[in-house]
Amino acid sequence: MTSAPLPFLGLPQRLPDGTTPRAVIVSAGHGSPYPAQDSSSHAMAAQMIRAASQADAPLLTHWDFDLDGPLFGDGPPSCVDQGEIATVAGASAANRAAISGKTREILDLPAVPILIGGDDSVVIPFLEGFDCAEPVWIVQIDAHLDWRDEIKGERYGYSSPMRRASEMAHVTGMVQIGLRGVGSARHAELVDARHYGSRLVTARDIHAEGVEAALRLIPAGARVVVTLDCDALDPAVMPGVAGRSPGGLSYQHVIDLIAGLGQRCRIAGFDLVEFYPKADVDGVSALTASRILVNLIAAVCRQA
């Protein structure tokens, strides 16, 4: 592991008093790309998000109206940024081992791992890392179903994380939120997702009924791992994605989902993936991603 030149929000790599943090941020630039696919732009995502967070770094004790208080309440910072997991373009198996291994290490502290990707393939080893802990529900916030079994012979690519999660013994349920438009899914993948028992909530459902359309499907008290693909958000607020699709969730929808999960369940882990810096406009996507992570940290650090 190497420390990030610009840690998220200026957070330390470890707490100064030696106490165990509530949450640990790490990033992984490379996962399991498809053959001949260049993952270098996605690999820059964490650096851009960390840079966007620096404007808020001096404001940690200021009142945040998203959170109804300062980020860490009346206490000191209880989240750290341990920087980048060493991953290499094309070294798919080694990348997966490094990501799942670091996830297990954080859970052993114990703390809540927060992973910044990278493309959606980093989600698979991140979820695998929870095999050392209690069973979890997966809450996926994404425009796409992600149930492909393989593409070009690759079973661990960015179109397969929910398929692979459904095969993990420690995953006991799944809610997929924000679905819309078209992607890699065919009718067969939809049938498989429903047969597994995944609870599908479209973007239209959220726009019509609010975030409760999804929250009520998650058992109260469940341990949840949240995986957020940036293309779940509408491109008006998140243009920096590889596959823009109109009709997505708003920033408010996403932070309300996070707050609702923090109140209804126990957030055991979180990842944010698929920010594509080359497509960003005036840094809007990096800023939005940064603010989502702020809300996530607050929800985790307010858990009993």
From TrEMBL:
SUPFAM superfamilies: Arginase/deacetylase (SSF52768). Gene3D superfamilies: Ureohydrolase domain. Keywords: Hydrolase, Metal-binding. InterPro entries: Ureohydrolase, Ureohydrolase_dom_sf. PROSITE patterns: ARGINASE_2. It comes from the Bacteria. Belongs to the arginase family. This is Agmatinase.
